[in-house]
Amino acid sequence: MLHAILAVTILWGLSGILLIAVNLLVIPHLSRGPSGGPTPRVSVVIPARNEEREIGRAVSSHLAQDYSDFEVVVVDDRSTDRTGEILRSLAEGDPRLRIIAGAEPPPGWLGKPHALHRGALAATGDLLLFADADIRYDPRALREAVARLESERADFLSLLPRFEARGFWENVLMPNIPMSFYCGGGFLANMDRVRWMALGGGAGNLIRRRAYEAIGGHEALKDSVVDDVRLAFTVKRAGFRTRAARAEDRVAVRVYRGLAEIVNGFTKNLAYFFGTAAGLLLLPAIALTILVAIVPPAVLAAGLLGAPVSPRDMALAAAGTALAIVARAILAVALRDPLWPCLTHPIMMTVWTAIICRSFYSRLIQRRLTWRGRDFDARGARF
Q1: Which of 39, 71, 183, 259 could form a Cys-Cys staple with 169, CB 3.0–4.6 A?
Q2: What is the pLDDT of residues 206-259, one digit of tens each?
Q3: For residue 9, which of 283, 302, 319 has the smallest C-alpha distance?
Q4: Cα 126–Cα 218–Cα 69 angle in degrees, nearest 5
Q5: Which structural domain, as residue segments, surrounds residue 340?
Q6: pLDDT tens digits, 65-76
Q7: Does some domain include residue 383?
Q8: What is the C-alpha separation between 215 and 362, in angstroms, rounded?
Q9: Are 27 and 186 in contact (CB under 8 A)?
């Protein structure tokens, strides 16, 4: 049995390397595409609740765009920290920045979708760029994103950012986010006929207003915990053209700071992703990925410590461990991330397994959804 499991981990590891190579080659770079063409008005819509840590740098980066016609609409969702003060300071003398007051979400709404809904209603652009309040943009990013959308004749474009990390736990755990789409079928998001696969995220969803209104706007996403990802799926399933582009050299974000923030942040939403048809289909693949990450190094360590492991299984365990490290290293080099976290791959997958279990416990047993100081009934929320 052990021999068969280790053999499977070898095949899975090889397929992972192949998928990474395909995704890196097929998903286009934002910065290597067109940078000119039509310049429709763009409204950058940002929801902000207690974002004093990053809101200044994020909004300043949007205001520094070299695009000719845009506005930045920030919904201050009843922040209790210095978010409002920082925004008002930035808005002085710059009419392109508009601050919208948030309101208590009506019954059936979650906080972030409601804030985005209010921002979209106030926006005047033909294109809407939804971005989180901690995302920083290179001055060329908006111009290149619009040019990509127009050249592809697409209705929706998602930007894949650089995930910045500081310290041990951020460097160990956060690489799982880019791994999740580069080591999977991310390239299928750019294929129109594959309606069940799309990529979206808080780093940047650029959408045509007509497509946004056709799907019902954020009213269609009012109970969504992962509204930015669900927006992409909703748009594509409605028959619109969606695209994703690599933007790690144009868009950057430090999602969470430290182990506690990572655990609590992803506990909030992971269980909801698996409540979708696509999520359920991915469960076996994720389980196998966890098996591949943990079993080979565990067998290798056990053998080195004197456990009765056959030489053949030791060789397979060593190969399986090496393949995981090689896959991580290929992606790290491509994304210009540090290499040393590749050696902590088993630790990364072990902790993420615990986060997934904790997320299911929070949703199904505690039936609690807590974020940014607000509590929601988990039974009324979905992916």
Answers
A1: 259
A2: 999 999 999 999 999 999 888 999 999 999 999 999 999 999 999 999 999 999
A3: 319
A4: 20
A5: 2-22+276-365
A6: 999 999 999 999
A7: no
A8: 30
A9: yes
